[in-house]
Design goal:
40% of the residues lie in helices and 13% in strands. The protein contains 12 helices and 12 strands. The strands form 3 sheets. Strands 2-8-7-6-5-3-4 form a 7-stranded mixed beta sheet, with helices on both faces. Strands 9-10-12 form a 3-stranded antiparallel beta sheet. β6, α7 and β7 form a beta-alpha-beta unit. Bound molecules: pyridoxal-5'-phosphate.
């Protein structure tokens, strides 16, 4: 059976070139980078090369990059690290209603320990207003955390503008850039951020490795206590193959990113244009233009996203109803509710995300089969009355 992967926002395959670059570090060059002998030193050099590649992509200094186990750890590090370093200065954090759980859960945890967290709402496109952030700032605000682009609906936030406001008030600004790094230009100085999270498996690198950018001079508590790896900022033996893979992956993205984005935007917009011609009562979720090049999110009225997903899977098509982390829960996505969808419409949502190996024919196959699936499910739906 044909298998078509349209779920690149959940994870991407590791690029074969990345795998080739990682392989020597699993056996021949297996040394512990903290060891002073030659085995250790060749691993250390490879890690420092990766750090430089990532720093170059971000317009950062290599010493401002800390390697982590992925996006979740980087988000937790940013939030707990700043909260604990600055708790004597203030106890107020500002974030938004549509962040990934890797941001909202640490915030909720801090609330149980006396911190105050404001979850700023978004408009119907999922956009947060910089002025709303500004209005929420108090003299106790120590951190603002706003994601660069949303993983479910793809909306890209005005990060540079929010960063300017934060800087003007002397408040640290973190962005979760897990969905943008490797897909869009991400320059820490243009975005005015002090902290930024990223994850290799979202840009054709391996799973279980990521990084956090921490602007020089930022006051932050270390997150993992133990050895003095990463200049004492993050204990634990380095994941050398993973870090080498991350470095190669970001280098490939640097070369391919613009062409890939142009191609994906063409396919994305074709899908956005064609869907309402093929299925009645569908609506696009997220912003029509300020959205990730690879993201399409639709609600199809009168049917359940989960049923669509299962039927598509039987046809070999992999898509998503939202964030993979919550796809086992039956609660509608907090992001779709935050943009004002009713529970019923939110339950009928479908996310399609494109990537390096998506072909035009994949989109055609999807456009051919989705209307049939929708028709079949609507025929069984008591809510649906054919117009
Ligand atoms: N933040 C966003 C926006 C994400 O999309 C994800 C993963 O889906 C994460 C954080 C978590 O990243 P990781 O899977 O590397 O822990």
């Amino acid at each position: 059976m044909k298998r078509i992967y349209l779920d690149y926002a959940a994870t991407t395959p590791t690029d074969p070139e990345v795998i080739k670059t990682m392989e020597p570090f699993l056996f021949d060059k297996f040394g512990n980078p903290s060891s002073i002998h030659s085995f250790g030193q060749e691993a250390k050099k490879a890690i420092e090369d990766s750090r430089e590649k990532l720093a170059l992509f971000l317009g950062a200094k290599p010493e401002e990059i800390i390697f982590t186990s992925g996006g979740t750890e980087s988000d937790n590090f940013a939030i707990f690290g700043v909260a604990y370093a600055l708790e004597k200065k203030g106890n107020h954090i500002i974030t938004t209603a549509i962040e990934h759980h890797a941001v909202t859960e640490p915030c909720k945890f801090l609330q149980k320990r006396g911190f105050k967290v404001s979850y700023v709402s978004v408009d119907k496109f999922g956009l947060v207003s910089p002025q709303d952030i500004k209005k929420t700032i108090t003299d106790k605000t120590i951190l603002i955390s706003v994601m660069h682009a949303n993983n479910e609906i793809g909306t890209i936030q005005p990060i540079a503008e929010i960063g300017k406001i934060a800087r003007g008030k002397g408040i640290y600004f973190h962005t979760d850039a897990v969905q943008t790094v490797g897909h869009l230009p991400v320059q820490v100085n243009e975005l005015n951020v002090d902290l930024l999270s990223l994850s290799a498996h979202k840009f054709y690198g391996p799973k279980g490795v990521g990084a956090i950018y921490i602007r020089k001079g930022t006051r932050i508590e270390r997150f993992l206590h133990g050895g003095d790896q990463e200049r004492g900022m993050r204990a634990s033996t380095h994941n050398t193959p993973g870090i080498v893979g991350l470095g190669k992956a970001i280098e490939l993205c640097q070369d391919k990113m613009q062409d890939e984005a142009d191609f994906q935007i063409r396919l994305r917009d074709k899908l956005i244009k064609e869907m309402p011609n093929k299925i009645s009562e569908v609506c696009l979720n997220g912003h029509p233009t300020k959205r990730l090049p690879n993201n399409i999110n639709f609600s199809i009225k009168y049917i359940e996203g989960e049923s669509v997903l299962l039927n598509l899977d039987m046809l070999g098509i992999a898509a998503s109803t939202g964030s993979a982390c919550t796809s086992t829960s039956l609660e509608p996505s907090h992001v779709l509710l935050a943009i004002g969808l009713s529970h019923e419409i939110a339950h009928g949502s479908l996310r399609i995300s494109l990537g390096r190996w998506t072909k035009e024919q994949d989109i055609e196959y999807f456009l051919e089969h989705l209307p049939k699936v929708a028709e079949k499910l609507r025929a069984m739906s008591p809510l649906y009355e054919k117009k």
